[in-house]
Design a protein that fits this description.
This protein is mainly alpha-helical. It has helices spanning about 5-15, 15-40, 45-65, 70-90.
């Protein structure tokens, strides 16, 4: 699990701007891993790479939440609204 103190330490070390740049790069790498899964199928190699990039992206989302000082309650509320809307679309 991601520790808030560790996220803050990373952001303090790299700085907000560099953290955002790193997140853009990591999210791009996740996109590439997903594309390879679709193109080549789910092999042991593509699956392992996807899991690795998904972990990096998950960390990056926490970094971004910290950089932009987004409180958990605000994000949780938005996630709930989005999920509710998605569920209505498929009902």
């Amino acid at each position: 699990m991601i520790k808030t103190a560790d996220i803050k330490k990373l952001n303090e070390h790299y700085g907000a701007d560099m953290s955002v740049v790193m997140c853009i790069e990591e999210l791009s790498e996740l996109t590439k891993a997903l594309t390879k899964c679709l193109r080549y199928g789910e092999t042991a190699s593509t699956f392992e790479h996807l899991v690795e990039e998904l972990a990096d992206a998950t960390i990056c989302l926490a970094l971004l939440q910290d950089v932009f000082a987004i409180k958990d309650e605000i994000l949780d509320n938005e996630i709930t609204l989005k999920m509710d809307r998605n569920m209505r679309r498929i009902s």
